[in-house]
């Protein structure tokens, strides 16, 4: 019954999306008639219905209702409760339902609260949102129905992939989805503005919180995903340039560029067409990412729903939306005036460089991701990895960081270098000193060395905008910028330190034997069997002491799940402020020796601290912007009230 | 107006990408990871024996002038059981087959060979897949054709079926048998 309610709610939501599209198109004409009044209510009710459908899916998973095919394929009665719930979105159909739910909630929210733009633009925006939504409803209902029944119901489910039975999974995909799908709002705003040709600073201000929100979730999702891959897969790396990792990075790069260009549009009424284009590109990248993951067209560790038919469906949607929006843009871009002019040495100038660099990195990542597809068409198999991405990305990443250090110090419209000379030179001196210091102490590669120097300089430069300003009166959004830029420095330092100073040992040790890795001495004290709810494991007891200090215990496991049968290695980590000891227990070698993989990774955790700081910066900016908007809105309302009273 | 030119370029690129996607979707997916070592000399190695009654395997044994089949197998691998009759047929047709046992125990290998037959003249013991990875094999079973000078000539991925037997014999012949 619950599954049927969910399915019915989904069909009704799809019907409302159709109504919203129709009413929105009719409402774009002047006046618009009575239909136009239906646009906002349709969006709001659609959001409620989608939430109901998703709630129904959660409920059948919580109860392990095995007569629902999706539950039988992805869950098991012996699974811990939290993973039963997480199983609802740990599969293709459930995650697509999450996708449309987030999308309709976002649409419902703009329909309910956003009143600053001209009503025509809003109708066009909501019509675009409904148009995108309809495609995904069709995808769900016709080719990926999450509520399909299984008759007769099996006595037990197949279980969830053990790699996914981890708290990381409970948060990582939904977080990324809020980001991916949140960008659909930017896309709809962009299409709405194109349709009505109203690209104004107000439009940028309205769109910005949505981009910020999506960007915060993307940042958190990527950070969490990177950490999850790092400890769960047991390979000890935090970024592999895997196609699916790139799929999450590309929308982030586009959203970062969009965020900055929207600031220029909001503050200075410049970069109009460019901002619109980025709005289209950002969500396009989300869709390309989804396509790459779901179609199985690329070989990836993440390809979890390999199905060419679904791939064809998403490709059709991709061509329709992305192609349609780009063609619309191409035909309308000429009629959008260029906007205000500015000098090269100005805040806008720096932001343009930032945008160009981010777009270039985006193009590099996109090319690297799709290149194997291109060569395979000519029967040449290649894999593109760090030797391409790292140096080629650095060509644009390094200048971007330099501009990132200087840009926030510059004034809008026009500035002189002499005015910002001192802080820039101070940051440059710190960067060069760090570079020289590291180079003298440790002989490391060029890129990590450059990374360390830049990180030091950037850390100093990022707090420079606070100089000479009243810290208490500084707007929250400016704090957000400082924190996020500082986070980039922190993350960069972690990446450089990890790649330069990581030490690795692979040993076969008997119980009682020790091995040294970096400053650590690790002793294998015991190997014992342990049992969990749906797995058994061999657990190593390791005693690790840092520079001869007191020993701490680590318990890495080699786990065997039985539903479905699969081996995983659960790494054990010991975190200090200056790095992590990473241990993995492998199989038994002959003669009672155990394979142990040990890493000492100096400052590796700073990568994720940095990621969290970047997200925190975004959050501060979002709160600051929304609070300012609310204040302005109540002031305007009070003014209107006063005027009405005076008139009376 | 430069912007407009740029955007039409983007539209063109997107269309090209979609075309590429569509083309790749329509083609059957080749999930095999082919060895990049074909045509190259086998990296040097020296493996101890995996069972008592057969010698171990080193790269020198593969460059003794006679082409050979190199079978990568394991006692825990189910398709390896399925290909046993075909390997026996290859041996009966005069092929010299050597093997590498992956991540295995001597007792298990001996039991496996006792149950499914032993067509191998030499069996090396590769506990951490070092040799397997060095020749570009990503799973078990796989069968390589090595010529008399120790150069990898051909790779067969998966179990050897009846129809693969003449193919492998032909590859051996081309390698100089």
What does this structure look like?
- The complex is a heterodimer of chains A (648) and B (177).
- Helices cover 63% and strands 12% of the residues of chain A.
- With 648 residues, chain A is of the alpha+beta class.
- In chain A, the strands form two sheets. In chain A, strands 2, 3, 4, 5, 6 and 7 form a six-stranded antiparallel beta sheet that branches.
- Chain B has two domains: 1-30; 46-174, Glutaredoxin (3-Layer(aba) Sandwich), CATH 3.40.30.
- Chain B has six helices and seven strands, in the order αβββααβαβαββα.
- Chain B has helices at 2-26, 78-82, 84-92, 106-116, 130-134, 164-174; strands spanning 46-47, 57-58, 68-73, 97-102, 120-126, 142-146, 152-157.
- In chain B, the strands form two sheets. In chain B, strands 5-4-3-6-7 form a five-stranded mixed beta sheet. Chain B has a two-stranded antiparallel ribbon with strand order 1-2.
- In chain B, helix 4 (106-116) links the parallel strand 4 (97-102) and strand 5.
- The N and C termini of chain B lie far apart (69 Å).
- In chain B, 36% of the residues are buried.
- Classes of the chains: A alpha+beta (648), B alpha/beta (177).
- The A-B interface holds A 273-274, 277, 284, 291, 295-297, 299, 306, 308, 311-312, 315, 318-319, 322-323, 326-327, 329-330, 333-334, 370, 373-374, 376-377, 381, 587, 589-590, 595 and B 1, 3-4, 7-8, 10-11, 14-15, 17-18, 20-26, 29, 31, 34, 103, 105, 127-128.
Our count of helices of chain B gives: 6
Structural class of chain A: alpha+beta
Number of beta-strand segments of chain B: 7
Oligomer: heterodimer
Uncertain parts of chain A: none
The tally of strands of chain A reads 10
Q: What is the 3D form of chain A?
A: globular
Order of SSEs of chain B: HEEEHHEHEHEEH
Structural class of chain B: alpha/beta
Largest beta-sheet details of chain A = 6 strands, antiparallel
What is the name of the CATH topology of the largest domain in chain B?
A: Glutaredoxin
Give unreliable regions of chain B as ranges: none
CATH architecture of the largest domain in chain B: 3-Layer(aba) Sandwich
Name the CATH homologous superfamily of the largest domain in chain B.
Answer: Glutaredoxin
Distance between the first and last residues' Cα of chain A: 58 Å
What is the makeup of the main sheet of chain B? 5 strands, mixed
What is the mean predicted local confidence, pLDDT of chain A?
Answer: 88
Using the coordinates above, name the CATH class of the largest domain in chain B. Alpha Beta
């Amino acid at each position: 019954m619950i599954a049927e309610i969910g399915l019915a709610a989904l069909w009704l939501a799809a019907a409302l999306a159709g109504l919203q599209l129709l009413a929105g198109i009719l409402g774009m004409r002047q006046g618009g008639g009575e239909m136009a009044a239906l646009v906002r209510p349709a969006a709001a009710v659609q959001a409620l219905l989608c939430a109901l459908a998703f709630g129904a899916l959660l409920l059948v998973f919580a109860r392990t209702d095995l007569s629902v095919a999706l539950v039988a394929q992805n869950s098991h009665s012996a699974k811990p409760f939290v993973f039963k719930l997480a199983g609802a979105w740990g599969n293709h159909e459930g995650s697509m339902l999450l996708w449309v739910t987030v999308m309709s909630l976002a649409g419902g929210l703009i329909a309910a609260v956003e009143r600053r733009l001209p009503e025509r633009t809003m109708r066009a925006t909501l019509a675009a949102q409904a148009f995108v939504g309809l495609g995904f409803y069709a995808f769900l209902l016709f080719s990926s129905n999450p509520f399909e029944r299984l008759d007769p119901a099996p006595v037990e489910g197949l279980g969830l992939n053990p790699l996914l039975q981890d708290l990381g999974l409970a948060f990582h995909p939904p977080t990324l989805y809020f980001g991916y799908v949140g960008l659909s709002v930017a896309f709809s705003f962009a299409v709405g503005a194109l349709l009505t040709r109203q690209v104004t600073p107000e439009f940028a201000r309205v769109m910005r919180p949505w981009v910020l929100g999506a960007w915060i979730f993307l940042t958190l999702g990527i950070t969490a995903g990177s950490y999850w891959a790092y400890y769960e897969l047991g390979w000890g790396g935090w970024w592999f340039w895997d196609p699916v990792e790139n799929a999450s990075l590309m929308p982030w790069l586009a959203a970062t560029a969009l965020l900055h260009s929207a600031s220029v549009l909001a503050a200075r009424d410049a970069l109009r067409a460019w901002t619109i284009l980025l709005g289209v590109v950002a969500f396009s990248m989300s869709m390309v990412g989804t396509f790459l993951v779901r179609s199985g067209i690329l070989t990836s560790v993440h390809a979890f729903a390999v199905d060419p038919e679904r791939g064809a469906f998403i490709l059709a949607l991709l061509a329709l939306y992305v192609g349609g929006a780009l063609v619309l843009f191409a035909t309308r871009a000429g009629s959008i005036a260029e906007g205000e002019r500015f000098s090269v040495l100005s805040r806008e100038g720096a932001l343009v460089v930032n945008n160009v660099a981010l777009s270039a990195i985006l193009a590099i990542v996109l090319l690297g991701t799709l290149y194997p597809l291109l060569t395979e068409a000519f029967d040449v198999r290649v894999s593109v990895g760090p030797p391409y991405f790292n140096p080629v990305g650095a060509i644009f990443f390094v200048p971007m960081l330099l501009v990132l250090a200087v840009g926030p110090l510059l004034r809008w419209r026009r500035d002189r270098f002499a005015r910002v000379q001192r802080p820039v030179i101070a940051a440059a001196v710190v960067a060069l000193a760090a570079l020289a210091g590291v180079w003298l102490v440790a002989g490391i590669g060029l890129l990590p060395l450059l990374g360390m120097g830049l990180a030091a300089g950037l850390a100093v430069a990022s707090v420079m905008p606070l100089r000479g300003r009243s810290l208490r009166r500084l707007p929250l959004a400016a704090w957000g910028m400082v924190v996020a830029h500082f986070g980039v420095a922190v993350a960069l330092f972690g990446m450089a330190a990890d790649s330069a100073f990581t030490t690795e040992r692979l040993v076969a040790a008997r119980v009682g034997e020790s091995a040294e890795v970096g400053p650590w001495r690790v002793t294998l004290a015991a190997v014992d069997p342990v049992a969990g709810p749906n797995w058994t494991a061999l657990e190593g007891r390791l005693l690790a002491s840092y520079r001869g200090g007191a020993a701490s215990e680590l318990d890495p496991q080699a786990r065997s799940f039985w539903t479905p049968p699969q081996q995983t290695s659960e790494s054990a980590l010991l975190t200090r402020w200056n790095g992590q000891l990473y241990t993995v227990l492998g199989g038994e070698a002959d003669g009672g020796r155990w394979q142990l993989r040990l890493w000492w990774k100096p400052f590796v955790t700073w990568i994720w601290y940095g990621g969290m700081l970047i997200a925190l910066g975004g959050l501060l900016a979002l709160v600051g912007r929304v609070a300012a908007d609310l204040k302005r809105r109540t002031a305007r309302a009070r003014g209107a009230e006063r005027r009405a009273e005076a008139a009376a | 107006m430069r912007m407009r030119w740029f955007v039409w370029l983007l539209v063109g690129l997107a269309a090209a990408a979609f075309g590429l996607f569509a083309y790749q979707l329509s083609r059957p997916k080749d999930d095999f990871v082919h060895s990049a070592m074909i045509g190259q000399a086998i990296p040097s190695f020296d493996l101890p024996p995996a069972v008592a009654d057969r010698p171990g395997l080193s790269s020198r044994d593969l460059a003794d002038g006679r082409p050979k089949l190199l079978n990568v197998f394991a006692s825990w691998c189910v398709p390896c059981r399925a290909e046993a009759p075909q390997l026996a047929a290859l041996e009966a047709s005069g092929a010299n087959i050597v093997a590498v046992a992956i991540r295995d125990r001597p007792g298990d290998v001996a039991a496996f060979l006792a149950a499914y037959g032993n067509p191998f003249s030499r069996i090396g013991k590769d506990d951490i897949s070092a040799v397997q990875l060095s020749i570009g094999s990503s799973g078990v079973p796989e069968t390589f054709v090595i010529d008399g000078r120790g150069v990898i000539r051909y790779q067969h991925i998966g179990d050897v079926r009846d129809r693969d037997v003449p193919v492998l014999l032909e590859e051996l012949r081309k390698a100089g048998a």
